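Key result, reporting period 2: structure in, sequence out.
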């Protein structure tokens, strides 16, 4: 009913899944683009089809991961805070968009950057960790050498993946 009325519903985290919040700047750095379609393609490849939600108004992405990640990846979770990454589990809720919501509708509060194929399919924690490390390294390099990298120009995503626009 909430999906019908509001386009999103609040789901509790920490039971079926948890979420890793990725700042838009980090995601754009890895994607080497600010274009939603480009970002979606990079996230799809990097997360190996694992579901990711975008909250465009706040420029944040939420990778859905196994419920155990806040506990089993505790040291990594603490390290990720330096990159403005947060992990949410028990005691928090996430606004989850209806399944048909995608970047084609810019008026949406949130949409699926990488749609959920099935409820049991989540992002592998190692894929998320690699994505965060790549973004953190890219941003650190850019901060150290601001003239060395121009994020507005097209380039190969930091992950080394090339995309032809297909999903």
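The corresponding designed sequence is given below.
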């Amino acid at each position: 009913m909430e999906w019908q009325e509001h386009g999103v519903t609040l789901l509790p985290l920490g039971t079926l899944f948890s979420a890793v919040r990725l700042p838009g700047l980090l995601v754009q750095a890895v994607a080497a683009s600010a274009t939603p379609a480009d970002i979606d393609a990079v996230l799809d490849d990097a997360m190996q089809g694992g579901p990711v939600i975008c909250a465009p108004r706040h420029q944040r992405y939420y990778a859905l991961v196994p419920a155990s990640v806040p506990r089993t990846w505790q040291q990594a979770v603490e390290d990720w805070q330096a990159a403005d990454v947060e992990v949410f589990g028990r005691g928090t809720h996430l606004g989850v968009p209806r399944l048909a919501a995608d970047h084609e509708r810019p008026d949406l509060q949130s949409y699926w950057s990488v749609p959920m194929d099935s409820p049991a399919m989540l992002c592998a924690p190692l894929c998320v960790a690699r994505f965060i490390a790549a973004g953190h390294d890219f941003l650190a390099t850019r901060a150290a050498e601001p003239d060395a990298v121009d994020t507005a120009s097209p380039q190969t995503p930091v992950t080394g993946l090339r995309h032809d626009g297909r999903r």
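The CA atoms of residues 78 and 86 lie 9 Å apart. Confidence is low (pLDDT under 50) at residues 149-167. This case is discussed further under Risks and Mitigation.
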